Amino acid sequence: GNSVTQMEGPVTLSEEAFLTINCTYTATGYPSLFWYVQYPGEGLQLLLKATKADDKGSNKGFEATYRKETTSFHLEKGSVQVSDSAVYFCALSDGGATNKLIFGTGTLLAVQP
Amino acid sequence: GAGVSQSPSNKVTEKGKDVELRCDPISGHTALYWYRQSLGQGLEFLIYFQGNSAPDKSGLPSDRFSAERTGGSVSTLTIQRTQQEDSAVYLCASSLMSSGGWNEQFFGPGTRLTVL
């Protein structure tokens, strides 16, 4: 079945450092890929998405490119801020009849000033 | 505009009791999802509603779990005879299916359930 694997956390970085959180997936067909973020004490919210191969999703300085050849959707940001501290979830949806989301385990990012 | 709301925000119950968790989706959203976020299992899908029917219940972990949706709006997730392993944050999400396909799922703040 469909699954998502993302790097274990926690990831601890200094402010202005470069961020990469790895995400790979297993899916039949052509899933849509997502990054969701959960800030402390807040609900889950969509950060960015890509719906087909080679699409790049971007938002708030974060980027991720849908790589079908490597079945990956790695999250990157060139310069993190303390306010980026949160849990990041990679997810996929096969669209289809339900569009349900399959999530990775989440990666805690802690950015220190 | 109003987002997805859930109640209660926190629920503490004793093992063996029944609990009901409520979700109010965004007005007009035809699709409604329940997910569970727990330490051992991560974030997992439970059930999907389209309107008032639930064509995908594949994520419900046991027959102690059930859900309904009325009027194409509010949904209730019921857990009977709660067990300690049911302790988790229960998340609800809603989305709209349009002519362009599926749209983003919007999540509620969740209900934190603790079974003592």
The span between the termini of chain B is 37 Å
Number of DSSP E strands of chain A? 12
Helix content of chain A: under 10%
The helix count of chain B comes to 0
- Biggest sheet overview of chain A: 6 strands, mixed
Q: Which shape of chain A, going by the Cα principal axes?
A: globular
**Mean pLDDT level of chain A:** 94
Low-pLDDT ranges of chain A: none
N-to-C span of chain A? 41 Å
Radius of gyration of chain B: 14 Å
Residue fraction in strands of chain A: over 45%
- Annotation, overall tally of beta strands of chain B: 13
**Which word captures the global form of chain B?**
elongated
Average pLDDT over all residues of chain B: 93
Tell me the fraction of residues in β-strands of chain B, as a range: over 45%
Q: How would you describe the overall organization of this protein?
A:
The complex is a heterodimer of chains A (113) and B (116). Chain A has strands spanning 3-6, 11-14, 19-21, 23-26, 32-38, 44-50, 56-59, 62-65, 75-77, 86-93, 101-103, 107-112. Chain A has no helices and 12 strands. With 113 residues, chain A is mainly beta. Helix content of chain B is 0%, strand content 54%. Chain B has no helices and 13 strands. In chain B, strand 7 and strand 8 (75-79) form a beta hairpin. Classes of the chains: A mainly beta (113), B mainly beta (116). Chains A and B meet through strand 6, strand 10 and strand 11 of A and strand 4, strand 5, strand 9 and strand 11 of B.
